[in-house]
Design goal:
two-stranded antiparallel sheet; TIM Barrel; 312 residues; alpha/beta; single chain; seven-stranded parallel sheet
C-alpha cells in the first residue's frame, strides 16, 4: 500500500525497502526473478506445518520471488503449505509447477503423460495453490533417466503434450512452458512452442547435459539445474565431498555447497537455482551462495572437475 501527501512528517509511514534478490535477477518467462529461488519438495514428509510456514515466510522476506513446486510433491502437502503460509501472495511472486507424474495408489509416483492428465495436473495445482495462473509449468518428460520411465500408453509424443500446454497458456492458466529431464534433440524440437525454462540434472561434477545448456544459452532460455550439488543417489559423487570444492570453500570462507552453487551461477547468467530446505538456518546458507565471488583461478579449477564421460 502507498500513501501520497503534499507534505511529509516523521509520523508518515515509510515503506520498508525491498530486499535484494539473492544472487541477482534473471528472466523466467515474463518474470524477473531472484537467481536463487526455492524448491518446495522438502516441505513434505516430516516437516511440520509450523516449520514449513516459517521457512516459506523467511524465503519471501529474503527477497526470493521464485518458488518451484508440484501437486504431486507430498500428494499435495507442499502446495497446501505454500498457500497456508503465503496467500494472499506477493504480486511479484512467480509460482512454478511441474506436471508429467502423479501420485499412485501405493503412495509412489506414476507416469501421467497423456494430454488430458497434464491438463488435470495444471488444474489441480491452480486449485491447491488458490491462483488463476501459474508463472511457468514444466513438463517432466519420462523418456530418459533418472527416475520414472514412461511405458505403454504413457509414451506420448512431444507435440501432443506441447499442444495441450499451449492451449492452457492461451487460456491464461499458465504464463510459460518449461521442460524437465530432456536431451538436446527434445529441446530443439520443442523450441517452436516458446520454451522459457529447462530443468535438468547438472552440477560442477556432472555436465552430461551441457549440450542442452548450450541450446539454452543460444536461445536465452532459463536453466534450472536439479541435483545442483551432485547426485542424490547413493554411491555417486557429491560436490560437497569433492576435495577441490572443500579446499576452495576453506580458502574463501564459504561452505562447499555455497562454492558449488556459486559455480553454477557463474557458468551461465541465465541459471536459476532452486535449492530446497526445511529449516531457516540452512535456507540462509543457501541464499548466501549468491554473495560468494569466485576468483578466476577458482572457476578454472572447478571447470576441470567434471568426471570423464560426464561432459556432454
Amino acid at each position: 500500500m502507498t500513501t501520497s501527501s503534499s507534505s511529509s512528517s516523521p509520523s508518515d509511514p515509510t515503506p520498508a525497502p525491498s530486499p535484494a534478490r539473492p544472487g541477482g535477477t534473471a528472466k523466467l518467462g515474463d518474470h524477473a526473478v531472484a537467481r536463487i529461488g526455492f524448491g518446495a519438495m522438502q516441505l513434505e514428509g516430516s516437516t511440520g506445518e509450523r516449520e514449513a510456514t516459517a521457512v516459506l515466510r523467511a524465503v519471501v522476506a529474503a527477497g526470493v520471488n521464485h518458488i518451484d513446486t508440484a501437486q504431486f510433491y507430498g500428494a499435495g502437502i507442499c502446495n497446501d503449505r505454500i498457500r497456508t503460509a503465503l496467500a494472499p501472495y506477493p504480486d511479484d511472486l512467480a509460482l512454478v509447477s511441474k506436471v508429467g507424474a502423479d501420485n499412485g495408489p501405493d503412495g509412489g509416483l506414476v507416469p501421467a503423460q497423456r494430454p488430458g492428465e497434464l491438463r488435470r495436473q495444471v488444474e489441480a495445482n491452480l486449485t491447491a495453490l488458490g491462483v488463476e495462473r501459474l508463472a511457468v509449468v514444466n513438463l517432466r518428460r519420462l523418456d530418459i533417466p533418472p527416475g520414472l520411465i514412461a511405458e505403454g500408453d504413457q509414451r506420448v509424443d512431444l507435440d501432443s503434450q506441447l499442444a495441450e500446454l499451449s492451449a492452457l497458456r492461451d487460456e491464461g492458466k499458465l504464463g510459460g512452458i518449461g521442460l524437465s529431464a530432456i536431451d538436446a534433440d527434445t529441446l530443439r524440437a520443442a523450441l517452436p512452442a516458446g520454451i522459457v525454462c529447462v530443468q535438468n540434472g547438472y552440477s560442477v561434477l556432472d555436465r552430461s547435459a551441457e549440450p542442452v545448456l548450450d541450446l539454452c544459452r543460444e536461445h536465452g532460455i532459463a536453466w534450472v539445474p536439479f541435483f545442483p550439488l551432485g547426485s542424490a543417489f547413493p554411491g555417486l559423487p557429491k560436490a560437497t565431498e569433492n576435495p577441490t570444492v572443500v579446499a576452495l570453500a576453506t580458502e574463501l570462507g564459504a561452505t562447499p555447497a555455497q562454492v558449488a552453487l556459486a559455480w553454477l551461477l557463474a557458468h551461465y547468467d541465465g541459471t536459476l537455482l532452486i535449492p530446497g530446505t526445511s529449516n531457516t538456518a540452512h535456507l540462509g546458507e543457501n541464499l548466501a551462495a549468491g554473495d560468494v565471488v569466485l576468483p578466476a583461478s577458482a572457476i578454472t579449477e572447478l571447470d576441470g572437475l567434471a568426471a570423464p564421460g560426464r561432459i556432454g
